[in-house]
Amino acid sequence: MRAVHAQTGRSSLLALPLLVVTQVAACGSPGDTPGPAPAGDGDGSGQEAGAPSAGDDSTGPAADAGDAAREATGGPDTPAVEARVAGLLGQMTLDEKVGQMIMVDYGSLASLDDITTYFLGALLPNAGEAPADNTPRAWLDLAGSFRPKALATRLAIPLIVGIDAVHGDAKVAGATVFPHSIGLGCSRDPALVTAVERATAAEVRAMGFTMSFSPDADVGQDERWGRTYESFGEDPTLASTMVAAAVTGYQSAGPGASGALLACPKHYAGAGGTSWGTGVMGGIDQGDTQIAEAEMRAVHLPPFKAAVDAGAMAIMVSYSSFNGTKMSASGHWLTDVVKGELGFAGFLLSDFDAIRQLAGGSQQQEATAINAGLDMIMMSNGYVEFIADVKSLVAAGTVPMARIDDAVTRILRAKVVAGLFEANAPDPGGLADVGGAAHRTIARQAVQESLVLLKNDNHVLPLSRSAHVAVAGPGADDLGVQSGGWTLGWQGVTETGASPIAGTTILAGLQATASSPALVTYSWDGSQVPSGTSVGVVVLYENPYAEFEGDTNDPSFANTSSAQDPSGHVIYDGLAAGIVRQMTAAKIPLVLVLVTGRPVRIESYLSQFSAVVAAWLPGSEGEGVADVLYGDAKFSGVLSKSWPRDATTLPVSSLPPGGDPLFAYGFGLGYP
Length: 672
Ligand code: GLC
Prior knowledge:
Layout: E1 2-4, E2 11-13, H1 60-73, H2 79-89, H3 94-100, E3 102-105, H4 113-117, E4 122-124, H5 136-151, E5 160-163, H6 181-187, H7 190-205, E6 211-212, H8 236-251, E7 262-263, E8 288-289, H9 293-300, H10 302-309, E9 314-316, E10 321-322, E11 325-326, H11 331-341, E12 347-349, H12 362-372, E13 377-379, H13 383-395, H14 401-417, H15 437-450, E14 452-456, E15 469-472, H16 479-483, H17 506-513, E16 520-523, E17 535-541, H18 576-584, E18 590-595, E19 611-614, H19 623-629
Parallel strand pairs: 3-4, 3-13, 4-5, 5-6, 6-7, 8-10, 9-12, 15-16, 15-17, 17-18, 18-19
Antiparallel strand pairs: 1-2, 10-11, 14-19
Helix pairs in contact: 1-8, 1-10, 2-14, 3-13, 6-15, 7-8, 7-15, 8-10, 12-13, 15-19, 17-19
């Protein structure tokens, strides 16, 4: 898929398998437990060797990756693309143009015929929306019901149908669920990220969808943020490298039979740097990024530059503000910076109903957003009114026709570059790829590479296959917990036993890897530790959450008061202390496995565990955790996010270097 750089007119054919995606600095080869770190302190350096620190003035790997892409391919001329787009635009009525600027929740359509009647250009399922029968085939039929309605319009401009496939196409029952990005960031393996997103793209395109609202290009600074797990980490160079790799993976299929998958890096910009207390629910999500422009440019802009250089043709704009100005209203950031300075030639998509957070009535909000540089408006409903409003605004000269033409040009350019005009309806045979063995193999490797070993006294890990192991913690036997948010539904699910999520729990993985399943016993509360048990594995977890429902002022298993969690969502269910107490009473060495979307405070538990493993949100392939705990795979992950020492060091980040983390960014141990 070709990227077009408006400024230079250069194009870069994207993501050829030969594309060189620069490996981020080699992970620090994790050695043994670092000598100087006394147990329970964890101050070992473990820092990855030669990792570029944040704010490096070097161009960093991401830029190299973009340059490598361009150098590797040179790319064909783009005049053909521009001529085709201009030719289409020249035929379009104002109604047809404004219809292209709409991405509406399909559930609000009065009739599918409205797609034709109002020339709608894009649709989405809202975060929690799915066909009644949540199967890959049902999703294919749903997308298939939209397609002819768009092709029935005068110019037959194809739809973009977007979905939040943020860790695999995980809203779909049966899809492969990959680890969330915080874990992928710990892998320091961009080639793996490309493979993960290439597999995700295949599953999404198999269902006839043509955009994923990902990768998340946020540089998450504050672990109290409910979206920490969606970010690749706190360092802009790491995030940039992984975002470029993800865009390459999503768009690498090229304009094949069902068209390429359009990546949509989000949330531009600074969503990961907002201040606690400024959030939409009183927490931090959708809040105000209260920093100098120089810091915004050094920390939060680079991943979007990397995305543009890697060929992204859509970018989603953040709900958040920059020093009090909503990003959706900022001509500086939307027009001057990303389109002007970065040469972004694709389109800017608003977040869901984000323009309704702007000042004034509907027309004022629409004029502000479109004139600032938003090209496509994502909305829950109100598409008929929106069209009437924008036509009035154009007639009054409040929104220049030139701005409309620029927005539609960018949208059409993305559809042409993605090959959507040539795409056929997907062959239902492609559904066999959804949740298939090949993708699960990639997901299992991603789990292995995402795990981080934080402590391993007396080499209690790796486990012996012949050891009697007692497992405790409901999170050990719950595919929903290990998958996290954006799985089946917006907030994720918790479910023990049979699950629409096709996969393997951590417990099942351990039982399958031991020399006999009977050697691995389980009690959710730790009350059953058979005599002869030689080691205990305790899984402590967060209940799944998404967005502001995951904001918490105290990321700690001891925090069970919703007062700390502005949305009242129960993230920590208060079972941890009892489980740990039961298991420590058995007086056996204990391994702590953390299934969380962020670093959580564990300072009060450290001395009770011989080993501590950050497993993050591994997704459907729980066996990947067992692979590493039993030593079939090595620990290679290093932290993508600094770990808070206690409540007084929240938030903790390596930007600027310093702070007082319990475990530093880049820390990770390994087997001897
Ligand atoms: C949400 C999120 C965004 C998501 C979009 C569509 O509010 O902020 O990440 O892609 O709406 O579901």
